[in-house]
Design brief:
Blueprint lengths: L1 H10 L13 E3 L6 E3 L5 H11 L1 H15 L3 E3 L12 H14 L1 E8 L9 E7 L4 E3 L10 E4 L12 E4 L8 E7 L17 H19 L6 E5 L6 H15 L8 E5 L7 E5 L6 H18 L20 H33 L6 E3 L28 H14 L1 E2 L6 E7 L29 E8 L9 H9 L1 E3 L1 H7 L18 H4 L8 E9 L7 H10 L5 H4 L23
Parallel strand pairs: 10-11
Antiparallel strand pairs: 1-2, 3-13, 4-5, 4-9, 6-7, 7-8, 10-12, 14-17, 15-18, 16-17, 16-18
Protein name: Phage portal protein
Length: 569
């Protein structure tokens, strides 16, 4: 009976959720690299959990699509700069960054020294093939090791490449990785907290397939009640029976039992089918829920994980969820990747803004293209205060307190946006800009404040909040805010968005953007007082070279008769 009991016990199994433990990150004895688990195996674990879990695979693929959107673009006239970033490689970099929490790519340089040495292109490297070099005494990673298969380093000898910006070699490696306390060498994927649920989702799939292949039966016990023969005979009889009554997939679902009994007939008994389907449905749904929580999914419909109940009854919910997803998850992903690409451009002496074209055009609220250019028609639809407040807060959060532009002192402010501010510094300013704003340079920060600092009881909530905030903003932040819903229905043709950069609070708005120019204090080029003096003394013949970027005339205008109060003619 003990052998029969053991056979039955081996047959009956349960899916278990084991306590997941992240592999130990440690230096390899006698080597200069650090691996993420044995043979760098943790990356394969992440790959397996994506391939095995339908829910996880769908979310990761959808996120990658949202992040990449319609690809890289630039507002710069020279579009040739995009050739440095091949589309297929950028797509792979985006996919790896979402999947593994980090991504790696080669940076290829041209032959030459000094200013002649330029980046000619970047090329994706699968993240699982890269291991960081051991940190130096300053805690810096000076290079990376490439190996196609870390489980067999004798056959695939690791090759060292310097980290980006640390050498004069023709090839360097750049790693995109967010900072995380306690993780010096490897980033964590943002969904690692749900690895157990991904594996459970995978096991449920395996169980369901096996159940279907077995004809929805849990198996049989065949009792031979004519005595227990010798071991070799038992094995032969058992194999013959299984070969005749089962296929290869269900061979393990038949238990043959030999019994001492006076009865001579053979009885066949079926295991009862597990009909506790509600429990399995609960586990399956819980897996999906926990995986979505780890990925910060705002609405399952956006990822195809739930079906829409209609085209009209939840369109507003989907629209809001999509915008929130972009603002809180997608854009931060994009910014990290774009920061890396900006580093590549800076290596070539370029300061050009890149961006990902969004997969979804938020200006098409009613199926038509929203006009955010000069001819803007503001409808008389009632504004939505909650959305108004939301966008004002989002822009305010991007601003700096007027008194907190550390290391800089204001030297000029103006209401007009022509070239009335110049400084005779053309021969003194050189090198790379020190900030991300396209209007900044080595000495100056150019910011904008919402002016005048007056509101009335009839002022829009957006204007009231902007004035109360008393902050300064980059041009880029203000333009980006124009992609958010400010005054719903007050845009061209009744749309929800328009250019805040040009039209501020909308029709009849009495506010404008006031430009403030700050100069870096204690710099070795020119004093604050001298800069102010040179503004007044500059010769007209010198002004074309040093004038600040010119903005559109509408930026510094309040609504008035001269501009038809921002109404479309």
């Amino acid at each position: 009976m003990s052998e029969q009991k053991q056979t039955v016990e081996n047959f009956i199994s349960m899916i278990k959720m084991n306590n997941y433990q992240r592999p130990v990150v440690k230096e390899v004895i006698g080597k200069d690299y650090v691996l993420n688990g044995t043979n760098n195996s943790h990356f394969q674990t992440l790959i397996d959990r994506k391939l095995g879990s339908p829910t996880n695979s769908t979310i990761i693929n959808k996120y990658s699509g949202f992040i990449y959107g319609k690809g890289l673009t630039t507002t710069d006239i020279d579009k040739s700069i995009l050739a440095l970033f091949p589309k297929k490689d950028v797509k792979k970099i985006v996919a790896d960054y979402k999947h593994f929490g980090s991504a790696t790519f080669q940076v290829i340089y041209s032959k030459g020294k000094g200013a002649l040495r330029k980046v000619t292109g970047i090329y994706h490297i699968p993240r699982q093939t890269i291991a960081p070099n051991i940190m130096n005494d300053e805690g810096e990673i000076e290079g990376f090791w490439y190996c196609r298969d870390w489980s067999n380093t004798r056959k695939n000898e690791p090759e060292f490449f310097p980290a980006f910006g640390t050498s004069k070699d023709d090839i360097e490696i750049y790693e995109i990785k967010d900072y995380e306390a306690g993780s010096d060498y490897f980033a964590k994927a943002d969904w690692e907290s749900c690895l157990e649920w991904c594996e459970t989702d995978e096991e449920i799939s395996h169980y369901t397939l096996s159940h279907m292949q077995n004809g929805l039966s849990a198996g049989f016990v065949i009792n031979l009640n004519n005595g227990i023969p010798e071991l070799e005979t038992r094995k032969k009889v058992e194999a013959d029976i299984k070969r005749k009554v089962t296929g290869s997939n269900a061979a393990g679902n038949v238990v043959v039992s030999f019994n001492n009994s006076d009865a001579t007939k053979t009885t066949v008994e079926a295991f009862p089918t597990n009909d506790n389907h509600k429990q399995w449905q609960y586990v399956s749904q819980e897996c999906k829920t926990q995986i979505m929580v780890a990925h910060e999914v705002t609405n399952p419909i956006l990822f195809g994980l739930e079906k829409s109940s209609g085209f009209g009854n939840n369109s507003e919910e989907i629209n809001t969820a999509t915008k929130f997803l972009y603002a809180t998850v997608i854009v931060p992903y994009q910014e990290t990747i774009l920061d890396a690409f900006q580093d590549i451009l800076k290596a070539n002496g370029k300061q050009i803004e890149l961006e990902f074209l969004p997969l979804i055009d938020f200006t098409k609220e009613d199926g038509t293209t929203t006009d955010t250019g000069e001819n803007v028609e503001m409808s008389s639809k009632k504004k939505v205060e909650s959305l108004d407040d939301f966008t004002a807060k989002a822009l305010i959060d991007l601003g700096q307190d007027v008194s907190s532009v550390e290391g800089y002192e204001i030297i000029h402010e103006e209401e007009v946006t022509d070239n009335s501010f110049e400084a005779n510094l053309a021969t003194a300013i050189s090198g790379q800009p020190t900030t991300k704003s396209e209007q900044d340079n080595l000495l100056f920060k150019v910011r904008y404040t919402y002016a005048p600092s007056e509101v009335s009881d009839n002022s829009r909530a957006f204007c009231q909040k902007m004035v109360t905030a008393n902050k300064v903003y980059r041009k880029e932040d203000i333009i980006e805010a124009g992609n958010q819903v400010v005054n719903a229905g007050l845009g061209a043709n009744g749309s929800d968005t328009y250019s805040i950069w040009k039209f501020k609070g909308g029709v009849n708005c009495k506010h404008f953007w006031q430009r403030r120019v700050y100069i870096k204090t204690n710099n070795s080029i020119i004093s604050v007082n001298e800069a102010r003096r040179k503004i007044l003394e500059l010769e007209p013949s010198q002004r074309d070279e040093v004038r600040l970027p010119q903005n559109e005339k509408e930026v510094a205008q309040a609504a008035s008769e001269s501009n038809n109060y921002w109404k479309l003619n």
